[in-house]
Amino acid sequence: MTPIVYYDKPHQVNAADYGIEIPIVGSRPDMIHDSVIQNCPKIEIVSETRIDTPRPPLELVHSAEFVHNLLDSKETAIKELMKCYELINDDGSFNRYNPANAIADPTEALGKMFRQCEGTYIAAKMAWDKKNISPAQMVYYLGGGQHHARIDGPSGFCLLNDIALTAMRLIKEDGAGLIWIIDVDVHKGDGTAEIVNASVRGELPVQTYIGKNPEIINLSIHMARGWPLDREELAKSNGQNCAPIAPSRIDIGIESGDEANYVPKLKAGMDTILGYSGNRKPDFAIVVDGADPYEKDGLPSSALLKLSLEQCIERDMAIYHFLQAHKVPSVWLTSGGYGNAAWEVAAAFLKKLNDEV
Length: 357
Known about the structure:
- By secondary structure, the chain is an alpha/beta fold.
- It has a single domain (4-14, 22-51, 112-356), classed as Arginase, Chain A (3-Layer(aba) Sandwich), CATH 3.40.800.20.
- The chain has helices spanning 28-39, 64-72, 74-85, 106-128, 162-174, 190-200, 231-238, 262-276, 309-325, 343-356; strands at residues 4-6, 44-46, 138-141, 179-183, 209-210, 213-214, 216-223, 250-254, 284-288, 330-333.
- Helix 1 links the parallel strand 1 (4-6) and strand 2 (44-46).
- Helix 8 (262-276) runs parallel beside helix 9 (309-325).
- It is globular, with a radius of gyration of 19 Å.
């Protein structure tokens, strides 16, 4: 098995290009890509792979009203983008947004987000199509991981839930049965949990519950406190689209100061996900590989959890070894990571992976 990095450069979103003043560094995928070229000769880089679809089938996980708003007009689409990045305060003033600094039309950002949502499925298909090889195929996508996007709207810098959508598409279009979602972003994967739970209840087009075994089992390990678990801040930041907080199948909250127990608790959680699966092998895994637990992360709401770079590498290698031990193909998504050091986590993990395979 040769690990694959999927790099879709034309569809990277640099928030600063649209006057959005949050610490999402647009060069992060480029820096990871360059590190792989320089340091990872055993890892294959794939770019510009196309799947000929007009747009992702968003209705599988998002409400008809939300999808209509995205597609109906530029005005309604930009309103959803404003919600996504929380750019409007309660009094109507701008928050972290200076349109005078924009060098690109915001509708361009929307098109790129649609493409990134499709990119997660493209990357997943690369691994899925080699699901019978051994060792199991893994594909690392330099994008995706929009785990806060809810059924009826965006949240937390996430417009479209590419994670849940890819899981649903693998079930509906490719015949997958059991899928694991392992989310190690610093913030709880609340949008993914909401969508998965709605699907279990039969409220989405794809039924994902058979007997006593959910076909999508989601694990989220995250800060035990802070956004989005602080309900007062949650309601203030984005209104009814963000509440209530849905439980993941496995939620693991890590308190500040408990970083030494992060990896042991993650490993215990992965043993639990195996138990919930009836010890049966899943068809696929989606890893939401957020870099924002890193101690050098630049987002204030990530500050309650501070893993060293070595702990981040240990985290990712633990997931990789777990999936390989059970011969599970997987797609990995860069997800959260803010500031000038965000690229370091994925680059270090891929270097460690290259040295091991």
